[in-house]
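Run log, item B.
One chain of 372 residues. Sequence copied directly from the ordering sheet:
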Amino acid sequence: MQREHYKTHWHRYNLKRKLAELPPVTIEEFEKRLIQQKTEDAAAQEDQSLYCKACRKVFKSKNAHDNHLDSRKHKDNLQQYLAQSNGTIDASSSSTNAMEAEIEVSVKSTRAATRAAIAAAAETEVDVEMIEDGDSDEWEDVEFENPIENNDCIFCPHHSEDLLENIKHMSIVHSFFIPDAEFCVDVEGLLTYLAEKVCRDFICLWCNERGRTFYSADAVRNHMTEKGHCKMLHEGGALAEYVDFYDYSSSYPDHEDGMDVDAELDTPTALDGDDYQLVLPSGNVIGHRSLLRYYKQRINPNRAVVVKKSTQKLHKVLAQYRSLGWTSTQQEAAARNARDMHVMKRQHAKLMEQVGVKANKLQKHYRPQVNF
C-alpha cells in the first residue's frame, strides 16, 4: 500500500512542495487544484479569434478586432452587408442599432471563417448565402496562368517563342536541367507540374516543403535564384512525385518491345545455393556473413600469376664459393656482420631524426610573431 502511495501524483506534488519549503496539501485540495488546472488549460487551448462577416477577415486578438471596427473600410462594408441582408439602412438610425449590427457581424470563432459559417447557418437564408459567398471567395483557388502554357520561364518573367527555346533559356540562364531526360516521356507535363509548384503553390523545387514557407511567386523565385535551387530534387522519396512523367522500362535487362512493365513477376519456387551462399533469380549471389573478410577482397581476375623464381642460379653461385674455400663459419660471420650493420643503420636514422626535430624547433603551440 505504501509503495502504491509513492507512485501517485499527489505524493509527487507534495514532494516538490517540500523541496520548495512549502507545506503539503490534502488529497481534496490536490484534486480541486487539478480540476482547476485542467479547466485553465482547456480555456487556453481554445481559439479566441474573431471573424468579421462583413469584411470576411479573421482577427486573432480582441484588440485587433476592436481596431478594425473603428476603421472606415469596415464601416463601409458594414453598411453594404446590412443593406444586402435586411434592405437599405436608414442613415438616421440610432447608434444602438449600429452597435448591435457590429456585434452580430463579428462572430467568435475557433476555426476562422469555417466555424463562422456554421454559426451563422441557423440565421436567415440571406445570411447563409452571404457566408457561402464569403467562404467561396476565401477558399476557392485563385485563377492561375501557367507560365509553361504561355512559353514563359518558371524562374523569371522571360518569354520565349516556343517550349524548346524556353527550356534552352532555363538551362543557360538558370542552370536548370531535366534529370534522366532520356527516360522522360512527358516533358511538357513535367514542366507544367513544376510551374504549378513554384508559381501557384510557392514551393521551392529543391527544398520541397522542407525549408521556409513562401507567400508569393516572387519570393520563391528570388530564393531559388539566390540559393541556386533552380533544379529538381530527383532522389530518395522525391522520385515517387515524378513517377507519372518517367518510364525506365527500357533500362531493364529483360526489356522487350510490347512487354507490360506493370505485370507482376512470377515468384520462383526455389532458389539455388548451399550453406554459405544463395543464388537469386537475377544471378546475384548472396554470401554468408562469416565469409565477409573474403568478399571484401578486390582481387583482379585478369592479373598474371607470378612464377616463383628458380634457385638454380643461387645453387651454382654457392657451389662456386665452396670450391674457393667458402665455409659455414664464414657464412655465419657474414650474417652476423649484416645484422650489426642493420642495427647501426637504424641507430643512425634515429639519431638524425632527433637532430632534425631539435633543429626545426617544433613546438606544440602557436605563438603569433608580434614583437617586430
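Observations after the first pass:
- Residues 328-360 form the longest helix (33 residues).
- The chain has 14 helices and six strands.
Flagged for discussion on Thursday.
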